[in-house]
Amino acid sequence: RPDYDDTPIPEFLNPFWMASIPDDQPLSAITMPGTHNTMSLYGGVYAECQTWSLASQLRAGVRFLDVRVRHVNGNLTIHHGVSYQWAHFGHVLEGVVDFLHEYPSETVLMRLKEEFSETNNIYGAVVDFIHQYAYWDLLWHSRLVPTMGEARRKLIILQDFTGPDLGIRYGSLDIADDWKV
To answer: Which residue intervals define the domain Phosphatidylinositol-specific phospholipase C X in the entry (predicted)?
Structure first.
């Protein structure tokens, strides 16, 4: 279909579109292109949501990532429901770090949610993965919405799990998140 690009790589790339946004612009005033189940590349018609890799999505201009992790014995694998996506949270963090190093004018928002496990205790594992695959200062450490200048070269966790604050609480945002299959 002309409104859906399912080619292996994006036809249109816009990796530094945020560079022209004034530093004093609140991030809440910016429309963020995003993907649902960002890492869902496998599992057939009921699980696949994307055809582009994380790196391709970011280079195409996507700045909102929807990441679902399954927590098993301290590991955070990427899942869409029961479908394992052949990745773990460390792969996502490495991809975001690489992108923000190459394009320091940009920021990435990441909804992080537990999927297909119900430990309700992923906070410790998330922190461990951040220390192992990224670095602590990469994160925006506030519940307050930053300006574009404050957000540049930062990962803003939209925390959809319990535990101390790692960023902005997903539940505190006014987001149109109604859906049905």
So the answer is: 23-160
How far apart are alpha carbons 80 and 157 in whole angstroms?
19
Q: Which of 28, 58, 21, 34 is nearest to 149 (CA)?
A: 21
Instruction: Please enumerate in sequence order all residues whose Cβ is within 8 A of that of 51, keeping only pairs 6 or more positions apart, or say none.
Output: 5, 6, 7, 8, 41
Per DSSP bridges, beta strands 64-72 and 155-160 are unpaired
Alpha-carbon torsion 78, 8, 33, 22, what sign?
positive
Strand 168-169, strand 75-80: pairing: unpaired
In the numeric block, which tokens belong to residue 19? 């560079």
pTM exceeds 0.85 for this model: yes
pLDDT in tens, 105-163: 999 999 999 999 889 899 999 999 999 999 999 999 999 999 999 999 999 999 999 99
Q: Please report the beta strands in 25-147, taking only residues with DSSP state E, as ranges in sequence order.
A: 64-72, 75-80, 83-88, 108-114
* 58 vs 21: CA distance, rounded Å: 17
